[in-house]
Amino acid sequence: MGLTRFGEYSSPLGPVFVAATERGICRVSIGLKRDFFIENLKGMYGLPVDDAPGFLRPVFRLFDKYFSGKEVTFDLPLDLRGTDFARAVWGVLRKIPFGEVRSYAWVAERAGRTHGARAAGGACGKNPVPIIVPCHRVILSSGDIGGYSCGPRIKRALLALEGCPQTASGRFVIGE
Prior knowledge:
Elements: E1 4-11, E2 14-20, E3 25-30, H1 34-45, E4 49-51, H2 57-67, H3 84-93, E5 102-103, H4 104-110, H5 117-125, E6 138-139, H6 152-161
Parallel strand pairs: 1-4, 5-6
Antiparallel strand pairs: 1-2, 2-3
Helix pairs in contact: 3-5, 4-5
């Protein structure tokens, strides 16, 4: 029988909960209450849940670097469950460079769905491992931030941490 291990990382943005199955990191949540996170894990994976922060130490070391403003490649085994399109979107997101943003339309096109910006936004919203799969780097074509599963305050903070360029009006500059 499998097991879902989790741990809590103390970030400048508040607690970050990370969970992993035997296959890899399966969930990252920012700003949730511990009990709510645990109950969600039980419901999603139907596996026993174990508080095992030591198991997640490699992830937490990468978070230490990331939250100090350094570029990090989260080259970790992942257990991502979603539709083929969602998984294609998540693959595209992992290629967006640190400190840069792209539009939902750009992501959709590279994931194989021209005119699928809204669908790409939906896939970003279902990303189970934010930060590791950097959906916060995807914004509206206008340069406004758009939505984010962890809330707009967290998205803005992550983009600021990465030094993403902005115009004088506060809109972000889309790369490539």
